[in-house]
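Researcher: Please predict.
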Amino acid sequence: MFHGSTPDIGVPEKFTANNQTSPKIDLTQNPWWENLGSKELNGLVQEGLDRNKQLSMAVKNVELAQASLETIQLGWLPSINLLAGRASGNTTTFVSNLPIPVTSSTGFLAFIPNFLVNIFQLPNQIKGASKKVEASAADYLAVRTSISAQIVSAYAVLLASHEEERGLNELKVDLQSRVSTSRAMASKGLSSQVSFNDIDSEMQKLESQIAQNRANQVSAKNAVLILVGRSIGPLELQGKFSDLKVEQATPGNTPASVINSRPDVAAARAKIDAADYGISASASMISPEINLTYVGTNINTSTNGSGGSANANMRSAVGLIALNPQVIGSVNTSNKQYDAALIQYVDVVDNALREVDNALVSFETNNQKLKFEEQSLQNTDKNTKTYDAMLQQGLISKTQYLEFKAKLYLANIAILQTKTQTIISYSKLYQSMGGGSSFNEKKFNIDKQMVKTTKSNED
């Protein structure tokens, strides 16, 4: 049987991206979102971990699995029956479950505890149920990881959309000035209609960008509200997108350490264990069942007007083996469930490694792109100041200056978008690594692909 080991899967020694220069960290306990430097964001993440509806449902699933385990554990306790009644007649009467016959008018009370258990099957059922509790707990930790990452991404998109809105509106003011100037020049024959049409086309595209930005802003706001467990409505934020720090090093954890701490891998492993104990439980159906019964009675009788009382006791112990052909089918079904759990485990591990590898490359790529664009923006900003000085000296027209200034606005917007994508890829990276799954979680933690119950919960 399986019992505690994992399938032999070829896990690479390192990821494609070079993250080995960074130190390894305890992924499950790491509040990685705090690296972005926003107290407001930290508060929203904690609020989400406390109030998110998906997390509440995941907690209930853990409690449901725990209740099923406790129900199975009650199988070690005997059932208790109380039997009471009255019989009358002129002949001897045999009453079911009473150890002696009664005559004439009789009142009786019987106490009948009964213990019936398959001592080989029940332990395996209990172990299988405990593994299902572990799988539910791992699923809960996976939801925690996902929720924190989604909150960070939605928060970044929302702040970026506010800042982008300001830039687009400033660009619109300048573009309106260019449209007015071009229209006036075209009416006097100083410029062509084609030139005016080009500027007007720019305005239409800008209006489209503004509309899309508003839609993104509403979508991000609603996402934050739902993720933190609030209702749809207004959301007042104090943070600024420019305050978010994105120059973070990727964690130096190896593929093996990531697999050991990722919640969905722990869940898949627990499901293998549960399926394995299911095989043992099914096979144990051919083992003998122990039936222990004790009957204690007190009987009051009346014959020809004279009464009497008697106590009677009976004990029985029976061992029963039932050769039911359905046991073969049950064992076969359990074996198929075990095979499916093995395949699922391998698939989860493969997907986990793929997601982390992709996330590492994506974050590094976006981070490098952001640095290049920031350097380019510095050059554009310097050139804009030069054009401004030339405008003041009358060396260029206002239209020429506004045309170049528009490039500065667009460069700023491009950096906003790249920085947003960098933060999103940073969130996906930690989500793929299982980052923060047990942060401030008082009950469960993951270690070596297994969910551990903390001592504070056991006390």
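Model: The chain has one domain: 27-75+122-282+329-458.
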